Amino acid sequence: MNFKLKIKQGLQKGQSLFEVVVAIAISALIITAIVSLASNSIQNSSFSRDKTLAANYVQQTNEWLRQERDKSTTNFMAKAAVPTWCFTTLSWSLPRACGATEYISGTKFIRQSSFIISPVDGKSLVQMDTVVSWRDAKGLHQVKGSTSLSILQ
Fold first, then answer.
1. Which contiguous run of DSSP H or E holds residue 85?
2. Structural domain of 96
3. SS3 label, residue 101
4. How far, in Å, are 51, 139, 147 from residue 81 at the CA level?
């Protein structure tokens, strides 16, 4: 009898193969969830950074265009008569829509501005729409900004 009791106690000391497999499966699920959360957090952080940079490029472009208007209204109006400009740098060098690889110098962003000139009460109103776009693992993203400048004639 004493021998049978020792055998039963010996069988109960260790874990069964089933318990080990369940423990490993639960651990794997927990690790997978943690890695997935970390990965999503990194992607969201990168997207937020890129969106902030794109918004800064839009604002920077609109401010530069305002300065160009203030420097020379005549020159600005001649440039704004071209409906679309690609700005890889802040200069009037690409009077057309941007190509797929015409990035802002040193970045992954493409910056393009469109102009619409309308006469309003003896003035010209220049509607400027600037779009900064970029592509990442989740696809194409854009930040848009719009402003209007009045020009006395």
1. strand 84-86
2. 11-152
3. coil
4. 30, 33, 16
Q: Residue holding tokens 């203030």?
A: 70
- For residue 104, give every residue at least 6 positions away whose Cβ sits within 8 Å of its Cβ, in sequence order, or none: 57, 87, 88, 89, 110, 111, 132
pLDDT at 99 over 90: yes
**129: its two tokens:** 């729409």
Contact 60, 145 (CB under 8 A): no
pTM for this structure?
A: 0.76
In a domain, 4, yes or no: no
Helix (H), strand (E) at residue 13? helix 2-13
- C-alpha to C-alpha distances, 84 to 99, 109, 112, 148, 152, nearest whole angstrom: 12, 17, 7, 15, 22
Q: Which residues contact 121 (CB under 8 A, 6 or more apart)?
A: none
* 82 occurs within a structural domain: yes
Model pLDDT for residues 30-76, shown as the tens digit of each residue = 999 999 898 888 888 899 999 999 999 999 999 999 999 999 999 99
Question: Which of 56, 60, 63 is closest to 143 using CA atoms?
Answer: 56
Structure tokens at 94: 């690409």
Number of domains in the chain: 1
User: Could you tell me how many residues make up the chain?
Assistant: 153
